[in-house]
Description:
By secondary structure, this protein is an alpha/beta fold. The protein is built from 7 helices and 7 strands; from the N terminus they run H-E-H-E-H-E-H-H-E-H-E-E-E-H.
Amino acid sequence: MKKIILTLCVIFCTGILSAQVKVSILGDSYSTYEGWNPKGQAIWYDKNLRNDVDTVAQTWWYQLIEDNGLELELNNSYSGSTICNTGYNGADYTDRSFLTRSRLLGDNPDIIYVFGGTNDSWAGAPIGNADEKDMYKVKPATYAMFKNIKEAYPEALCVAIINSELSNEVVGSIVEACEKENIPYVKLVNIDKQNGHPSINGMKQISRQVWKATAPHLYKKLKSK
């Protein structure tokens, strides 16, 4: 892995890329921070200090971008959002779902991180089947979300991040859709959390695990150019 990261650094430094690699995020509360998400969208990490994360520099995505010489295109994260259109207590979350926001990830990102499924699991959203057209169910909505991203951003490397401690049904739905749509994914393990959300240490763990999963695919993408 150190050799891969070193190779990427050489690629960046020798100018093979005409500009920095731009990153967009499609996320929920785990990827929010006050002042860094689209106006009007609910956030979790803010001045209320619900756990020990108290600066944007401690978030997983900020660390990943800064540590690897990347650039933020857009962080479209909405606290409490589900992948599908079903939210907590069966509420209609169409206005905030990952599916609805899946084409709103900036102009031309090079990497898109999709970090969702946590609220689908916590809310007990219905799972459904891949061949259904019901976007109020997790599995068909996940397939549709990835198809939207690939259609809107065909040149981007899309990477799915799967939280630890989710239901087997939600994890299975995401993995199935990723494998069908050829989307790389990483299953997070042993993430330290406070109040159900990543702590400072947990954010570091996420950043490292995500970059480890991203680097080989990014190297392959750059090499093919």
